[in-house]
Structure of Transposase IS4-like domain-containing protein:
Amino acid sequence: MDATGLESSAASRHYTQARSRAQKRGKQHTYLTYREFPKIGVLCDCTSHVVLAVVHDKGPSCDVRHFREAFDQARRRIPIQRRCWPTAATTARPTTGTAARRAASAR
């Protein structure tokens, strides 16, 4: 699950900030504030990269807020086990290389 904010206008944020800086050099000052913006949250299967759910809202807001709705959407589409977080029993441990050394030193 991840969420991101989107631009709400055709002008990019870089353009609007550059325009604001240019106007500050002259006599006219323009201060831009962004109160709300479109936000989209996506829940996907990391193994197959299939998008399971999409949630839209207004930002700024915490991503956790979208998790319940996205999870419910995904459960209507596919069977999802109740336990969805990786645990020590379900996570494979690396056996060779740098990752194995890091895992061994963390124990």
